[in-house]
Amino acid sequence: MIVILKQDPPQKKIDELLHWLEDFHVNINIVKGAHTTILGLVGDTSKIDIESVQAKDIVESVQRVQEPYKNVNRKFHPDDTIIDVHGEKIGEGHFKVIAGPCSVETEAQICQVAKAVKASGAKFLRGGAFKPRTSPYAFQGLRAEGIELLSEARKETGLPIVTEIMSLAHLDLFNDVDVIQVGARNMQNFELLKELGHCDKPILLKRGLANTIEELLMSAEYIFAGGNNKVMLCERGVRTFETMTRNTLDISAVPILKKVSHLPVIVDPSHAAGRTDLVKPLSLASIAAGADALIIEVHNDPKNALSDGAQSLTPEAFDTIMGDIKSMASYMGKQL
Ligand code: PEP
Ligand code: MN
User: Fold this and answer.
1) Are 259 and 64 in contact, with CB atoms under 8 Å apart?
2) Which residue owns the Cα nearest ligand 1 atom 6?
3) Substitution candidate for ligand 1 out of 206, 209, 249 with most atoms within 8 A of CB
4) What is the C-alpha separation between 26 and 161, in angstroms, rounded?
5) 265 bridge partner residues
6) What residue owns the CA closest to ligand 1's atom 3?
7) Which residues line ligand 1 (CB under 6 A)?
8) Rounded average pLDDT over 211-239
């Protein structure tokens, strides 16, 4: 349920209303916008009589929210959420590119790629330390050492680091990570989501291979329910009957997510396509559809990459595409 208050109500009246609502044992989120104050009520609101709320003199209107996602719903928070990582903002017109290799392989590799993507205009460095691989015999990532090497690359370039968590057991290793990624395969690892709800770091939440948009929003709701409201949603393609691409980029997810949620939306054209030649068109389409950021795989030697070489751009190709990305983003009125 959302309760929209009249403009500038006296604090005493707000306190009285909150006090009255407390008896219903619901969580109350207060969102103060420039002109309006909204109370978002989450929990069992069935006992709250809508007309009694409406009758309070500071209440402008009351609405029941039918959707199962509440905190991430734009009805609860009409303004776009901005995620600010050491001054680098994503959301509400702030557009960023996150780039780097699929996997962190060596110090030289990650530092070389970090410097190259920074020179081309990327503002965040990605790199997998814990890798979710289909085969147990494939490269599993450098694990804790991979995170140390990412920190080294951050020291050399200043780029905040984004890396994927696969298990709750590794959470302590992520203390120094700037943005924690939850990969497609863990989108519905609810215990992991609950724990990330208690941490004070931005979470890049990827859509699962076969999950609906609503399921993605419900996973974000888990993180919010724990108290962490720094979540970014990532469309990375879903599995379909198509074989010419690794996945099918669901471009409609972008405007839908922007419409129904206030959270920033990121697109990963690399994992969506699985091939380098589609990274540019899918990037441009994503920006045109309203994406707030892109996450792109770049490797200094894609042919010999330990994972996802087929979809990884060389630093040179990335630099060229960045020119087009910047033009499209500024055409869409974004700040880079
Ligand atoms: C990745 O970003 O390296 C990754 C494994 O992505 P996804 O979870 O989208 O497959
Ligand atoms: Mn990858």
Assistant:
1) no
2) 183
3) 206
4) 37
5) 233
6) 102
7) 102, 128, 132, 164, 183-185, 206, 236, 268, 271
8) 98
Q: Which atom of ligand 1 is nearest to the CA of 102?
A: 3
Long-range CB contacts for residues 132-138, cutoff 8 Å, separation at least 24? 132/164, 132/166, 132/183, 132/185, 132/186, 133/307, 138/307
Query: Separation of 311 CA from ligand 2 center, angstroms?
Result: 8
Express each pLDDT in 102-129 by its tens digit: 999 999 999 999 999 999 999 999 999 9
The tokens for 199 are: 């941490």
Q: Which two tokens stand for residue 329?
A: 């983003």
The span from the CA of 153 to the CA of 155, in Å, is 5
Could you give the C-alpha distances from 246 to 99, 243, 274, 276, 317, in angstroms and in order?
19, 7, 5, 11, 20
Report the pLDDT averaged over residues 41-51: 93
Q: Percent of the chain beyond pLDDT 90?
A: 96
